[in-house]
Design brief:
This protein has twelve helices and twelve strands. The chain is an alpha/beta fold. Strands 2-1-3-11-4-12 form a six-stranded mixed β-sheet. The protein has a six-stranded mixed β-sheet with strand order 7-8-6-9-5-10, sandwiched between helices. The longest helix is centred in the N-terminal third of the chain and has 27 residues.
């Protein structure tokens, strides 16, 4: 009887060990049966794109085949350009991807990962901006964080779509009464005391400004949602995931498995503790970088403001092409039309 008991214990131990191994594999991969490459280099900019891959970053362990690098957004293009680009997979702004990779010869787009994190702030909360009343911005000066880049391009697209004239205020231009006057500002200049009428600010800076000025005589409040102003609940295609074409050709099954992981990543964010998310991203930051998100500024409200969800390239190309056309219309040098070969088809 004692021998039988010992044998039973051994069998049960083996079962539990096997179950534990399978569980760990499932946690780190949507399909552990897929045998992938031995080394995968994945680069993504800090901020909302890093949140989009926070689940993968959380389960990443030393010795895994996937190597994630969270880098400064200003340097992301360096990982997909040159004679021997470092990135097998990379997340970057759509407009930048269209200009650098739009031919589809070296990289293909797997899908969109974020769909806007831009909000309007003002000390006058009595007027909430919608598509029906954007004309109320005429004659006002709007400070835009990153005016030459996606935030400014998107706001210009929205104004154009609603037939609201605008101009950029340079060093010599004066505000016009019959146009929306756009002024480039950095996050530090978003404050009640600057005298501007309104601001366009990305998260998490937008929520930080609202919180920081809550006790001011004239606090900043949310007065507009650029995602809804552009495309209702869907927002606009902001950041995209691309993969090296030569890598795709040799690892198609692995790519499809990774896409499946990405499709479920937004759900994980809804229940994960902010501290867990911050830790996952921080472990992969480039040395010396200050993270965009911390336990003080990351909340479920902020996450919900980042438009994180995965849309496949094949299923979302109509929306991507439409947004590119609109960006080109307001700034021909800021984006480019892409070839059909840019879109990955499983």
């Amino acid at each position: 009887m004692k021998k039988i008991a010992l044998a039973l214990c051994a069998v049960l131990s083996a079962v539990f060990m096997a179950t534990g191994c399978v569980s760990r594999e499932k946690e780190s991969s949507s399909d552990p049966s897929v045998i992938g490459p031995s080394n995968v280099e994945i680069y993504l900019p800090d901020g909302a794109p890093a949140l989009a891959m926070a689940e993968q970053l959380h389960w990443d362990r030393e010795g895994d085949s996937k190597h994630y690098y969270v880098v400064n957004a200003q340097t992301i293009q360096t990982y997909v350009t040159g004679e021997a680009p470092k990135a097998d997979l990379c997340v970057l702004p759509l407009n930048l991807a269209s200009k650098l990779l739009g031919t589809g010869e070296t990289y293909q787009m797997l899908g969109t990962v974020t769909h806007g994190n831009l909000f309007m702030l003002s000390t006058d909360a009595s007027l909430q901006y919608t598509a029906e009343n954007l004309e109320a911005l005429k004659g006002k000066t709007v400070g835009v964080v990153q005016l030459p880049n996606v935030p400014g391009l998107t706001f210009k697209v929205i104004l154009e779509e609603n037939n609201v004239p605008w101009q950029e205020l340079g060093n010599s231009a004066s505000p016009a009464a019959d146009k929306v006057n756009l002024k480039a500002v950095d996050p530090n200049q978003v404050a009640p005391s600057t005298g501007l009428d309104c601001y366009v600010v990305p998260e998490p800076a937008a929520s930080l400004k609202v919180t920081a000025t809550a006790n001011a005589p004239k606090p900043l409040s949310f007065v507009g949602d650029l995602q809804k102003l552009y495309g209702g609940e869907k927002g606009y295609p902001q950041a995209v995931l691309v993969a090296k074409k030569s890598f795709i050709q040799g690892n198609g099954e692995w790519i499809n498995s990774f896409i499946s992981e990405m499709e479920g990543a937004a759900e994980w964010l809804k229940t994960a503790e902010p501290s867990l998310i911050v830790s996952a991203v921080s472990r992969h930051l480039t040395e010396g970088m200050t993270p965009a998100f911390t336990e003080k500024n990351l909340s479920q409200a902020v996450i919900s403001h980042c438009g994180i969800r995965f849309e496949t390239a094949a299923g979302y190309k109509t929306e991507v092409n439409a947004f590119l056309d609109k960006m080109i219309a307001v700034s021909p040098v800021s984006a480019a039309k892409v070839a059909e070969g840019f879109y990955y088809h499983a």
